[in-house]
Amino acid sequence: MVSFFVEKPQTMSASQNVFVSETTMSSIIPNNNNNSSSQKLPPGLISISKKNLLKNIDIINGGSGQRINAWVDSMRASSPTHLKSLPSSISSQHQLNSWIMQHPSALEMFDRIIEASGGKQIVMFLDYDGTLSPIVDDPDKAFMSSKMRRTVKKLAKCFPTAIVTGRCIDKLYNFVKLAELYYAGSHGMDIIGPAKGFSRHKRVKQSLLYQPANDYLPMIDEVHKQLLEKTKSTPGVKVENHKFCASVHFRCVDEKKWSELVLQVRSVLKKFPTLKLTQGRKVFEIRPMIEWDKGKALEFLLESLGFGNSNNVFPVYIGDDRTDEDAFKMLRGRGEGFGILVSKFPKDTDASYSLQDPSEVMDFLRRLVEWKQMQPRM
Predict the structure, then answer these.
(1) Catalyzes what (predicted)?
(2) Where does the pLDDT of residue 205 fall: very low under 50, low under 70, confident under 90, or very high at 90 and above?
């Protein structure tokens, strides 16, 4: 993941009227007051090398034309459909075949996956954009198909199911409209559980589980307003407020304007040193600089379900974005379950398997449901 970080202030900023939250789960993020580089920092702090710190301060506060060009190159590579971003060695058939051998199709390996689950409780975690819905130019039109909705509804009847996304929960729910799911919005910083007595036609209030970045709400609102103002001269840009994070979509921005957009975004973020900038598929993500991501959200949800220290659980995470790599990495470290990357192109990933697009995701989920429904008969 391409990330910019700067040193986090030790005290609350009076001008911004916000402070960094320390209310993270001690069972998930160890509380250690030793701030040496070899030790884990307390919740809310991120270890960063002096070299990277100086480099990233340079990027935020000025930098050089070369650094701007590096950002633009990264923007080109942020979408696998940008063929110019694919080195010839990777696009070769040999490299493609090698990648597929390392990350085989989850559909073709379905029986082996079921065998690996060993009768344990399967828990499903799903990204939304690019996984349950296609990637579209307008993020407000990333609609889930009715077939996919029915499939996810059946899945939730068979296994505990969560959607983990960068979107805010309210927008996500308007797309999904299934109250029987767990939702982790804002890259896992806004987590709610299934509603009791949910209705098909009317949303019922769901239980709030966790909001580790609650103190950042005023700051995110202000950043969103400033980004809207700063980027309004750039045609095609889309700025969104996801409650605990913000995003700047450049999918519809002319590539000739990308350097200008980088300057606009960083000119805003240099005023907010407790926020970090990361990059997804043709989108900039602005998030609080706390030690929390989709991997931490996955851990929290497993803990909430009673599987925190259990050996009887088999988590499956399906996603297509760089931010999903935190969840893939967590599963590899846990040694239980696996990640599935949704991509038609070779990517560096900690996922174990792959699926090409949302239609293959739906086929995989359907097979899981069919397998589960067959269990009593078997």
Answers:
(1) alpha,alpha-trehalose 6-phosphate + H2O = alpha,alpha-trehalose + phosphate
(2) low
DSSP readout, 181-214?
SEEEEGGGTEEE-PPTT--SSS--PPPEEE-TTG
Give the residue carrying structure tokens 């009847």: 157
pLDDT for 209 equals 82
Distances (CA, A) of 140 to 133, 174, 229, 365: 12, 10, 20, 25
DSSP code, position 322: G
Angstrom distance (rounded) from CA 262 to CA 107: 39
Query: pLDDT tens digit string along 251-286?
Result: 999 999 999 999 999 999 999 999 999 888 889 999
pTM of the model: 0.76
**For residue 141, what is the DSSP state?**
G
Cα dist. 365→47, 147, 181 in Å?
Answer: 38, 11, 15
Whole-number pLDDT of residue 52: 42
Quick one: how far is CA 235 from the chain centroid?
26
Asked whether 303 and 27 are in contact (CB, 8 A), the reply is: yes
CB 180 within 8 A of CB 194: yes
Is residue 181 scored above 70 in pLDDT?
A: yes
Q: What is the DSSP string of 208-264?
A: EEE-TTGGGHHHHHHHHHHHHHHHTTSTT-EEEE-SS-EEEE-TTS-GGGHHHHHHH
